[in-house]
Amino acid sequence: FTPGTVMSFTLLLKDSCKRFSINLQTGKPGLDSDVALHLNPRLELRHTVLNSKKSGVWGEEEKFPLAVISEDGHGSQVFIEGKTVQIIIKAEPAHFQVRIFTDIMMNNLLNLFLWFIDHRQW
Q1: What is the pLDDT of residues 88-118, one digit of tens each?
Q2: 24 lies in some domain
Q3: Which of 2, 95, 97, 122 could staple 90 via S-S, CB 3.0–4.6 A?
Q4: What does 11-70 look like in DSSP terms, one character per residue?
């Protein structure tokens, strides 16, 4: 996953979904692998956690609300049980861009929000 490449996930969240995670691991696969990006929406807590792990140590969690305000001023929940969501992760030289689109907004390709995760210390 080198700078300039993109990964796309389209997920249908089950009605019973309380949380899920996407981990971009580095090195050899396994439980002790470093994690360059940990994306963990926690529906029951109404926030998404971003983090990374190096040498077995997790960094400080960054929390973002599940509900965001779009450009027209309306509130929108990003992860909704029973709905489709698209997650696009783009590798940049020193960070990741994470874009999240809901099924309602996918036709307009409205960028609901954008996170920059800086991993220059790696």
Answers
A1: 888 888 888 888 876 555 444 444 445 555 4
A2: yes
A3: 97
A4: EE--TT--B--EEEEESSSSTTSEEEEEEEEEGGGTEEEEEEEETTEE---EEEESEEE-
